[in-house]
Design brief:
Protein name: Streptomycin 6-kinase
Pfam families: APH_6_hur
Order of helices and strands: HHEEEHEEEHEHHHEEEEHHHHH
InterPro entries: Kinase-like_dom_sf (IPR011009), NH2Glyco/OHUrea_AB-resist_kin (IPR006748)
Shape: globular
GO molecular function: kinase activity; phosphotransferase activity, alcohol group as acceptor
Helix content: 40-55%
CATH class of the largest domain: Alpha Beta
Number of strands: 11
Radius of gyration: 20 Å
CATH topology of the largest domain: Aminoglycoside 3'-phosphotransferase, Chain: A, domain 2
Structural class: alpha+beta
CATH architecture of the largest domain: Alpha-Beta Complex
Number of helices: 12
Distance between the termini: 53 Å
Keywords: Kinase, Transferase
Strand content: 15-25%
Strand order of the largest sheet: 1-2-3-5-4
């Protein structure tokens, strides 16, 4: 293994975590420790990268390619989900040190996601990739109750309720209350509890080498809940392109119908989760001072 290079975190990561983030201060040491642990040689940092993680393209001791991912939070959950999927539809986990936020992954083509395809083709491929992930959260043979480590959709969304009430502006208050009412109703009669990606979108599906499925999913923030929740994020993919065109509200509603039909998901449940998730994300962006993105998300929710 060669000496660890200087690691310059991508600006997206710095903006999201803040330049004074304790984790960013520890990051060079975490990279060095991970390279030494798995006898890796670093090649380059993937940029622009994610908002809560750093990915370094590396070579293993035998010369084979891999990707070292360091997460500010959530590494144990991602490792558990990738282990459960065992490479079926998702990137393969090669090794993990969750205590350091470190994951060693098979290398995919980090610069080639579904967003490189026309929207209609990308959506078709995304649907194909996503449905392979919806498996029971516990491994075969595990106890039915308490046999998995994942957070539920109910727990996850419950943490956002106060933020929605605090940060959605007064003029959008009826929309926020509708979103919260939809959440309560959807959770009250959830039809299933399967393992979800949690943050699925076109950019989370990368091209793979021959011998594997052409497109594989990366970057889960796994949850357990119903499929409509996972599919809801895909409904608003390429939102800025959608908003720039004509007839955006009608197109958004057609997306709901088309995606629901393609995966046999209840249309009303998908509409409800799509509206709720847009409001939740809008409130989060507004809280972070990202006014344009927050308002765009609330506008999208209003179309539904």
């Amino acid at each position: 293994m060669t000496s660890a290079p200087h690691v310059e975190p991508p600006q997206r990561l710095v903006r999201f975590l803040g330049a004074d983030s304790p984790w960013l201060a520890r990051l060079p040491g975490l990279v060095r420790a991970s390279l030494a642990r798995w006898e890796l040689t670093a090649e380059r940092v993937v940029s622009p990268g994610g908002r809560g993680s750093l990915v370094v393209l590396v070579r293993r001791a035998d010369g084979s390619p891999a990707a070292l991912k360091l997460r500010a939070a959530g590494a144990a959950d991602e490792a558990a989900a990738l282990s459960r999927w065992e490479g079926h539809g998702a990137v393969r986990l090669l090794d993990a040190a969750p205590e350091d936020g470190a994951l060693l992954l098979e290398r995919l083509h980090a610069d080639v996601s579904l967003r490189s395809l026309p929207d209609a083709k990308a959506t078709l491929e995304a649907v194909s990739a996503l449905h392979r992930l919806w498996v029971p959260p516990a491994s075969p043979g595990a106890p039915e109750d308490g046999g998995h480590p994942f957070t539920t959709v109910e727990e996850h969304t419950g943490r956002a309720v106060e933020g929605i009430r605090a940060h959605v502006p007064e003029e959008a208050r009826p929309l926020a209350e509708e979103a919260l009412a939809l959440r309560s109703g959807l959770l009250a009669d959830a039809p299933e509890h399967v393992l979800l990606h949690g943050d699925f979108r076109q950019g989370a599906v990368l091209s793979a080498d021959p011998g594997r499925a052409h497109w594989l999913v990366v970057g889960p923030d796994p949850l357990v809940g119903e499929r409509a929740y996972d599919l809801a994020r895909l409904v608003r993919d390429r939102l800025h392109d959608l908003a720039a065109g004509s007839g955006a509200p009608a197109i958004a509603r057609r997306r709901v119908a088309k995606l629901a039909n393609s995966l046999e998901v209840d249309r009303d449940r998908l509409r409800g989760w799509s509206l709720y998730r847009a409001v939740e994300s809008g409130a989060r962006h507004l809280a972070a001072g990202e006014r344009a993105d927050g308002e765009a998300l609330l506008e999208f929710a209003g179309w539904l």
